[in-house]
Specification:
5 helices, mainly alpha
């Protein structure tokens, strides 16, 4: 297996590169996509976010209202640290599980992680 880390900020071209690599057979494990899945209604991660930040971060259907959560955490380093402590370990575990499931000698596995260097834990 060849393991590739793909990183970069918003607008850096990660999606374009991921799409090109996937078209050539690479397995893409996308941290942003996993985060959205783990924050879906009914998930333990979302339940912990609501418990920590309040019911006003979800809509009437139980879906995360990202702007409401962003308003609570961006600009407040302590709140952002709490959110990261909830989300990052869960995303890391899921990425590791997906990587293990794709561990084949001929695979090229790409970990698409926006803040790979900044969040090196």
């Amino acid at each position: 297996m060849i393991l590739v880390g793909l990183t970069g900020g918003i607008g850096s071209g990660k999606t374009t590169v991921s799409t090109m690599l996937a078209a050539r057979g690479a397995v893409i494990i996308d941290a942003d996509q996993i985060t959205r899945e783990l924050q879906a209604p009914g998930t333990p991660v979302l339940a912990e976010i609501v418990s920590t930040f309040g019911v006003d971060v979800v809509d009437e259907h139980g879906a995360l209202v990202r702007p409401a959560l962003a308003a609570k955490v961006f600009g407040d380093p302590e709140a952002l640290a709490k959110l990261n402590k909830i989300v990052h370990p869960a995303v890391g575990r899921e990425m590791a599980a997906r990587l293990e499931a794709q561990r084949e000698p001929d695979n090229v596995d790409v970990l698409d992680i926006p803040l790979l260097v900044e969040n090196h834990r």
